[in-house]
Structures are given as C-alpha cells and as structure tokens.
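@channel sequence for tomorrow's demo:
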Amino acid sequence: MSAKRLIVASHNQHKIQEIKELTDHLNFEVVGLPELGDYAPVVEDGDTFRENARKKAVEIAQLCGELVLADDSGLEVDVLGGAPGVHSARFAGEPPSDQRNNELLLEKLEGIPLERRGARFRCVMALAGPQGQVEFSEGICRGIILLEPRGTGGFGYDPLFFVPEASLTFAELGSAVKNTISHRYRAMQGMLQVMERIEAKKASEKQLT
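structure tokens (generated this afternoon):
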C-alpha cells in the first residue's frame, strides 16, 4: 500500500523535519513546500496562532489540491504579557535571526529573577482539505527562560527555554527526547486523532457506496 501524502505548509526545514519525525510511524509521505516547487510563503498577518495556521493551511490546500498541515507556533513569556507570541520569528525585526531574537529576549528580561521568567511554547496546527474544511489542534509546553543560552541543538529560542521536567533546555535535549514533550509533539498528538477520525469516516463512506 502506497503512502498517503501530507503537505506541510512551511519552508522551515527544521519544522518540516520535526513533523516528519513525529509522523514516521504512520503511512504518510510528509512533503514540505520546498519539495513541491515554487510556492511563495503565505503572509502571516493574523493576530493569533490559530488565524495564521488556518490561513497557511487553506491557501496551500487550494493551490495544490491536497491535504495540507500547517502550524503557527511561538514563545509566550509571562512577564512580557505573552510576547513575543505571533511575532516570535521576527521579534528582533527583519531579516529573521535566531541570534538577534534571543539577544533581544535576554535584554527585555534583564534583571528579572528565574522564578519570574516563566514561559510557554504554544503550537496551533490546522489541517485543511482542498474544499476548505479545517480541523485544529493545540499543544503547550511550559518552561523557564534562562539567563544565558545552553546547548547547541534545536533552533529558535531552544537554547534559552529550560524544561523543568527534563532539567535541560530544548537545545540540550536532542530531537528524540524533545519530540516526546514539545508543544509541536503535543499538538501533533491531537492532530493524529483528527486524521484518524477523517480516515475512519472515509472508510465508512466507502463501504456504504
């Protein structure tokens, strides 16, 4: 039986790889936008992660006529009122830079003790079909923003995001462990249930025809 294709509406190779690893036990061929051709990035101008995820999934599904998974995710720091939030990737402006984003975050948190540096990574996933139907799933991982980076793995704010339950930063965990506790992993677990429900409905409808 050939694998079904799942399009990931992203040009971010780190994100595409994480989703591939999270779904490698399923019969899906996961394909990112760079593998499909010249798809321009969808403008993420929503006020929430949900709005951005929906827009990316729906627009790419309409263009390619296939099942599309999109996510929008970012860091929400308690004492910053949830910032950088939807602006996480471009917190320090254009062009996007992980290093400058991390430096700006540390600057804004200067003088704030660890016990007040609580934060969470949030991920909202949207699954869209070519007819415009959309399903959502959300995942959250709580942590603490450290005083300085630790670890060389991951991407984005991973070197600053310390997870108490693992006693390591995301950048120190390695993908095998990170992919069992991350916000994207938790959102994906909910989305897998959505995908299984869709497949079961298709199978039921096929039996009736």
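heads up for whoever presents: The mean pLDDT is 90.
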